[in-house]
Design a protein that fits this description.
alpha/beta; Immunoglobulin-like; globular
Length: about 350
């Protein structure tokens, strides 16, 4: 899946015929390669002027600082443009940033609402119906707000964007911290993460992975930190590999994820939160699969670590014995205690990740 996000130079809102033609060419090529493609649009957190912004009483500000009213003339034109573009372009996903946050509007000049009292409901209906239409057409919706019940597919995992300007070593740790914190109330595939292949906001060379081949180990650790926890990230940059060695590494990680995708995208049992001081780990569980669980363990230290962990297998459905296969190899049968736990002796290489399939 490829998103022509902000900074890409693509602007679906401008209404120019050449923009639509470019989109059709992009989508046709993407389909020929088995890739879904879409673009980005910012809704709230911007001012559009011309009397189209939300009007609030003195002393109050919109949730995101600025916001157009979805029921203003601008809002009517904006949604008409989105419908028309997606009906014709062949794009099959939309990243809809700054989605409607619930700002009411006191304007009496906007065609879509009469007063303050009906403004919030009418704006909500507008965006709800748009998302429902998108889902009815099979579009994938990235929306950084909780619009799941209206049709959105994914929201942010919970990171702060300024974190991606920190040095690479810190990014590896806060990636797993954010996934740990962001999966208490959603499954892994409901939240996206971020990997700044090129500089994002700041941090310079210390915060970025490019040139990819020169930071191969870090790139691998970022892929593992996301994929081994069942999470898809936005890999922001112009390319996923810059050499055959880099391509081979990326393909290897993706192939591993695809081989275990069902269990990796199942529910997560939280083990130990990453803190860069000791092993951190999570347990995937799904009693309806052959792979009823997968234990993934990360070592942030510069030396190998061996330790006994006691994961609780209750939600795997296994109650008496369980077979654990390190890295999918030969099985080891363990007894499940009355408390649902097993004792697993784990060894994880320095700065590495190890995994055990549970059957």
């Amino acid at each position: 899946m490829l998103i022509l996000s902000f900074g890409s130079g693509f602007d679906m809102e401008n209404g120019r015929p050449e923009t639509l033609q470019k989109a059709k060419a992009f989508s046709a090529y993407a389909r020929s390669r088995g890739v879904e493609i879409g673009s980005y649009s910012l809704l709230a957190s911007r001012s559009v002027g011309g009397g189209n912004d939300v009007v609030l009483p003195p002393g109050l500000k919109p949730v995101f600082g600025n916001s157009p009213c979805l029921q203003s003339q601008w809002g009517t034109n904006y949604f008409r443009r989105l419908y028309e573009f997606h009906r014709q372009s062949g794009f099959t996903l939309l990243e809809h940033d700054g989605s409607y946050p619930g700002d009411p509007c006191a304007s009496t000049n906007h065609p879509g609402h009469r007063r303050w009292e009906d403004s919030r409901w009418n704006q909500w209906v507008e965006i709800r119906d748009f998302y429902r239409w998108c889902r009815g057409e099979g579009f994938y919706l990235n929306v950084p707000d909780h619009y799941f019940m209206a049709g959105s597919t994914k929201t942010g995992m919970g990171y702060r964007e300024v974190n991606w300007s920190l040095p690479r070593e810190q990014q590896v740790i806060h990636t797993r911290q954010n996934i740990y914190d962001g999966t208490w109330e959603k499954t892994p595939s409901m939240g996206w993460m971020f990997v700044p292949l090129t500089e994002y906001q700041g941090g310079g060379a210390a915060a970025t992975i490019e040139p990819l081949s020169e930071h191969l180990d870090h790139y691998r650790r970022m892929l593992e930190s996301n994929l081994a926890l069942g999470v898809q990230a936005c890999y922001r940059g112009p390319r996923l590999f810059d050499s055959e060695v880099t391509r081979s590494m990326v393909k290897g990680e993706v192939d591993w994820f695809k081989a275990h995708r069902d269990i990796l995208e199942s529910d997560l049992i939280h083990g130990r939160r990453a803190d860069a001081r000791d092993l951190d780990w999570m347990l995937h569980v799904n009693p309806s699969l052959k792979e009823k669980g997968m234990l993934v363990v990360f070592n942030p230290l510069n030396e190998p670590v061996r330790k006994v962990l006691k994961p609780n297998l209750y939600y795997t459905g296994l109650t008496q014995t369980a077979r654990l296969r390190e890295r999918g190899g030969k099985g080891q049968r363990l007894s499940v205690g009355r408390d649902g736990r097993v004792e697993v002796s784990v060894t994880v290489a320095a700065q590495g990740m190890n995994w055990w399939v549970i059957e």
